[in-house]
């Protein structure tokens, strides 16, 4: 029913964040779940007219708003996770003074050298090595080194620079910890108990981040930003924030990639940074943050009974129910998650329809999923939800094929990741 276009070659590599890892500013934090700045460039290049105002409902590390800023295009963005929000905010700041960075950098070095803390306290049980624990995220020497840097950063009297150095610290945390990001969650590194990272090594990694990336990129930056997208970045749930903030019929272009329906919880994946940097203080705060995220994961038992009227979704849910009668469920919230993910999608497309001007477009990057051997055609379900809200679906671009998990492999071998191109037509 939908027109599929083969963009496997054009989009294959640029739909991953990897390419950003060597790009000034974008590289400050090694994000995983994003696309590259080339994806944004390719969209702007193919449009007949340069857009004036864009919108990114799921900002992540800020790739969309940052790239648009360098092109002089205004972009509203929304992000619910405090870590991603902070990273995007820091990358979008376009007025750092090199002498101030150097001044505060020297201050941090001095403070951490003078510090004599011997123990670090936290409400999170397994964050730091402690007697009686079987597992811990940071060895004691690493924990103390991080705390010394963090305490010094917190003493900086200018928020802009305090946040800049916090992102530099955030960027090295996983590396110096005993963990690695393992798809949906954090797992312990091989032989983690034998790792022996000294305080000096932690300091050195932090200093390298500042010297070789932050300072280099800010010093070399020749772009005079004509817009400042940091002003339009909101730390809010986009399901409610867009309606309150953005004027109706004002948006020319939306470029976005929502959380995929892959039961990955960003709160979990970035838990190490959230806890260490005190972006969440207690387990209760972590739970509250999860509640605000799009319902693409099963870390919460969703009680909402809402559903949407969509034939393809109904068929998929029926197939899932059939499949779960024949197999043991690894989590009994999966079907609720699938149902509610599309309830959320409907509320997003509904608010986008109000905010986009006639002739405006959406580039919506998402992938299909599979559970219990049932393929969930997220691309087509989202396309039909968008149509029901009044949009016209121009095409679905095939970007990449993703491998399925070993449990799905027999029934569903690979999953299409794509870009739905949508327009708000004239006669809607
Ligand atoms: C796939 S990532 C976006 C990546 C982004 N394109 C980039 O390149 O960095 C999806 C983001 O949506 C955020 N998110 C989840 N639920 C949200 C909500 N209700 N409102 C706003 N952001 C949300 C997640 O925290 C995550 O950072």
Overview of this structure, please?
InterPro entries: MeTrfase_CN4_CS, SAM-dependent_MTases_sf. It is an enzyme of class 2 (transferase). One of its GO terms (molecular function) is site-specific DNA-methyltransferase (cytosine-N4-specific) activity. It catalyses: a 2'-deoxycytidine in DNA + S-adenosyl-L-methionine = an N(4)-methyl-2'-deoxycytidine in DNA + S-adenosyl-L-homocysteine + H(+). This is site-specific DNA-methyltransferase (cytosine-N(4)-specific). By secondary structure, this protein is an alpha/beta fold. It has 2 domains: 4-94 and 224-263 and 298-423, Rossmann fold, CATH 3.40.50.150; 98-220, no CATH class. Helices cover 43% and strands 16% of the residues. The strands form 3 sheets. Strands 1-11-12-8-7-2-3-6 form an 8-stranded mixed β-sheet, sandwiched between helices. The protein has a two-stranded antiparallel ribbon with strand order 4-5. Strands 9-10 form a two-stranded antiparallel sheet. Strand 2, helix 3 and strand 3 form a beta-alpha-beta unit. Helix 4 (82-92) crosses helix 7 (159-176), helix 6 runs antiparallel to helix 7 and helix 13 (311-326) runs antiparallel to helix 14 (334-355). The longest helix is centred in the middle third of the chain and has 22 residues, at 199-220. The chain is globular, with a radius of gyration of 22 Å. 44% of the residues are buried. The model has no long low-confidence stretch (mean pLDDT 93). The protein binds S-adenosylmethionine (SAM). Residues 17, 31, 33-35, 58, 60-61, 63-64, 78-81, 84, 237-239, 257-259, 266, 292-294 line the site of S-adenosylmethionine.
């Amino acid at each position: 029913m939908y027109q599929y276009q083969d963009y496997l070659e054009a989009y294959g590599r640029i739909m991953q964040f990897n390419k950003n890892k060597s790009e000034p500013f974008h590289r400050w934090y090694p994000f995983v779940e994003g696309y590259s700045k080339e994806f944004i460039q390719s969209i702007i290049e193919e449009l007949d007219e340069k857009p004036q105002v864009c919108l990114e409902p799921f900002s992540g590390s800020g790739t969309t708003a940052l790239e648009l800023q360098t092109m002089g295009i205004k972009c509203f963005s929304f992000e619910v996770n405090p870590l991603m929000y902070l990273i995007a905010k820091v990358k979008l700041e376009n007025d750092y003074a090199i002498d101030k960075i150097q001044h505060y950098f020297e201050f941090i070095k001095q403070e951490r050298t003078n510090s004599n803390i011997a123990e670090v306290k936290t409400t999170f049980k397994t964050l730091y090595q402690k007697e009686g624990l079987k597992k811990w995220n940071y060895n004691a020497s690493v924990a103390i080194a991080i705390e010394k840097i963090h305490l010094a950063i917190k003493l900086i009297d200018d928020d802009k620079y305090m946040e800049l150095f916090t992102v530099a610290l955030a960027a090295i945390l996983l590396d110096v910890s005993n963990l690695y990001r393992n798809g949906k969650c954090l797992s312990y590194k091989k032989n983690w108990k034998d790792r022996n990272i000294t305080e000096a090594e932690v300091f050195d990694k932090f200093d390298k981040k500042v010297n070789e990336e932050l300072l280099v990129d800010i010093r070399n930056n020749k772009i005079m930003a004509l817009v400042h997208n940091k002003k339009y970045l909101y730390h809010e749930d986009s399901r409610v924030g867009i309606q309150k903030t953005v004027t109706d019929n004002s948006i020319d272009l939306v470029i976005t990639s929502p959380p995929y329906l892959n039961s990955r919880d960003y709160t979990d994946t970035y838990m190490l940074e959230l806890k260490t940097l005190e972006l969440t203080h207690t387990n209760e705060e972590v739970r509250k943050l999860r509640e605000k995220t799009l319902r693409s994961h099963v870390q919460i038992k969703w009680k909402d009974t809402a559903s949407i009227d969509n034939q393809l979704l109904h068929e998929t849910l029926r197939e899932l129910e059939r499949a779960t009668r024949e197999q043991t469920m690894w989590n009994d919230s999966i079907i609720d998650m699938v149902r509610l993910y599309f309830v959320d999608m409907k509320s997003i497309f509904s608010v986008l329809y109000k905010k986009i001007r006639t002739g405006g477009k959406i580039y919506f990057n998402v992938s299909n999923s599979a559970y219990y051997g049932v393929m969930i055609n997220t691309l087509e379900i989202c396309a039909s939800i968008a149509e029901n809200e009044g949009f016209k679906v121009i095409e679905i671009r095939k970007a990449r094929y993703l491998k399925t998990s070993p449990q799905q492999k027999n029934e569903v071998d690979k999953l299409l990741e794509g870009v739905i191109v949508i327009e708000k037509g004239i006669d809607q």
